[in-house]
Design a protein that fits this description.
Elements (H helix, E strand, L loop, with lengths): L13 E4 L6 H15 L3 E6 L5 H14 L3 E7 L2 H11 L3 E4 L8 E8 L3 E2 L6 H14 L11 E3 L3 H11 L8 E6 L5 H8 L5 E6 L21 H10 L3 E5 L6 E4 L5 E2 L1 H15 L4 E5 L5 H8 L3 E5 L3 H11 L3 E3 L5 E3 L8 H13 L5 H6 L5 E2 L3 E4 L3 H12 L6 E3 L4 E4 L3 E7 L5 E8 L2 H16 L3
Parallel strand pairs: 2-3, 2-4, 3-7, 8-9, 8-10, 13-14, 13-15
Antiparallel strand pairs: 1-5, 4-5, 5-6, 10-11, 11-12, 15-16, 17-22, 18-22, 19-20, 20-21, 21-22
Length: 455
């Protein structure tokens, strides 16, 4: 009986409960399938701190070597460190992580040489098909000459490379609290920050894939409460929170207030445009109006895209963009093979703050111009039906614009909202932004009433 991998092979990665949904036997088949689909004769493999990660990544490596590929194991790493290795070594790569998911989960993020993404339309569907076939028929025939498996530590090279992209030599001393959430930030931050004029206050740096302190998902406000309190208690200049695989970074100002990822996108965009005058900046359609405004003010060209890293990376490659940002705190850099790295965004924030005398809240105020609702989820059985009701309510009104690039976006002179269905759950996701709090609340409540009213 062939394994049904439909529940664990997602749009952009593999993710599921170990060993209930997948195990080392399947990981070995994924390794073989990855080599077969990419045609690679050499690959690089890394893993996070989850208890199941060393075994799964080792099995993947054996499957790849069985088909003749030489495997470089870089061991414990953040996801952006794996992308660095893929870019620097020019090899396809596989990262074993389930990011911020609970401890019983694990997954694989795969890329082609130069950190180019592998998703459903770029090889992942074929990898799933082969793994399903081989689970029924048996593993494919081994290559006449199996590949080798060797180890390489890339942490120092990764840290050195990041520091070549942002000049931190002249910044004033800063006190920074970092919450690694027991994830891979605890592994990478000490090396990346080494030698910088920073008074580092570490929180939850112990690598522990059971996440004993809080979920490693800073997008959920409850998971940055400890960081906010510590920043205030320490009188720190800022706080940084990384997710489980440390590819996303969230920022807290000196008051302990969360800084919008849109404001960070605008700040980093302005800095990247100073390095690359006239460049293109990608932003997804639920980042703030501030982002395209700041891009234009700094001589750049903003390009709006759908939500999701595959769309961002595709558009970056097509347009030659120098930077891209998402509301979810994913930040993409041309100088980093178009891949996302929260660590590089964090270095930009440190450089910007340390290069002047003001506070972080003062610095980001010019990039945070509007009032946003944040993402609000509603459980809705008929997503398409409720979205149609909302569209019909606003369509035809004077001064209202509507587009359906990704879900439904409705915009007026002083507000806009986007309503998008979840791909995996019966949810509608609402984001609202307005020029003032009262208008934002009014539009938010109007739309939520339409979404949550059953006929």
């Amino acid at each position: 009986m062939a394994a049904d991998l439909s529940q664990i092979v997602k749009a952009y990665d593999v993710r599921g409960v170990v060993p209930d949904q997948w195990d080392e036997d399947l990981a070995e088949l994924f390794g073989a399938a990855f080599v077969r689909v990419t045609g690679a004769d050499a690959i690089v493999v890394g893993h996070d701190m989850r208890p199941s990660s060393p075994g799964l990544s080792g099995a993947f490596a054996r499957g790849a070597a069985r088909l003749g590929a030489d495997v470089t194991l870089i061991g414990l790493c953040s996801t952006d460190q794996l992308y660095f290795a893929s870019g620097r070594l020019n090899l396809p790569g596989a990262m074993f992580t389930a990011s911020h998911n609970p401890a019983q989960y694990n997954g694989i993020k795969m890329c082609r040489a130069g950190a180019a993404p592998v998703g459903q339309d770029t090889g992942l569907a074929e990898i799933r098909t082969l793994a399903e076939q081989w689970s029924e028929q048996g593993a494919p025939e081994a290559a006449a000459t199996p590949g080798t498996i060797t180890e390489l530590d890339t942490l120092d090279d990764y840290a050195t490379y990041l520091r070549t992209l942002v000049d931190l030599t002249a910044i004033r001393p800063l006190k920074v609290v970092v919450d690694a959430g027991n994830g891979m930030g605890g592994h990478t931050v000490p090396t990346v920050f080494a030698g910088l004029p920073l008074d580092l206050v570490p929180m939850y740096f112990e690598l522990d894939g059971t996440f004993p302190n809080h979920e490693a998902n800073p997008l959920d406000p409850k998971n940055i409460v400890d960081l906010q309190a510590r920043v205030r208690a320490e009188g720190a200049d800022l706080g940084l929170a990384f997710d489980g695989d440390a590819d996303r970074c969230f920022v807290v100002d000196e008051r302990g207030e969360a800084v919008s990822p849109s404001a960070i996108t605008a700040l980093v965009a302005a800095r990247e445009l100073a390095k690359h005058p006239g460049g293109t900046i990608i932003h997804n359609l639920i980042t703030s109006w501030s982002v395209p405004e700041v891009v234009r003010e700094n001589g750049g060209t903003p390009v709006r895209t759908r939500v999701g890293h595959s769309f961002i990376k595709e558009e970056m490659a097509k347009s030659g963009a120098v930077f891209g940002g998402e509301h979810s705190a994913h930040y993409y850099f041309k100088d980093f093979w178009n891949a996302d790295t929260g660590m590089l965004a964090a270095l930009h924030v440190l450089a910007a703050l340390g290069g002047q005398e003001g506070t972080l809240s003062e610095l980001v105020s010019s990039y945070d111009r509007y009032v946003g609702s944040g993402e609000i989820n509603s459980t809705v059985a008929d997503q398409a039906g409720r979205t149609s009701v909302v569209k019909e309510t606003y369509a035809g009104q004077d001064g209202i614009g509507i587009d359906e690039l990704d879900g439904l976006t409705v915009a007026a002179g002083d507000w806009w909202f986007n309503l998008r269905p979840s791909n995996t759950e019966p949810l509608l996701r609402l984001n609202v932004e307005a020029r003032d709090a009262a208008t934002m609340a009014k539009v938010r409540d109007e739309v939520l009433t339409l979404v949550r009213t059953t006929d």
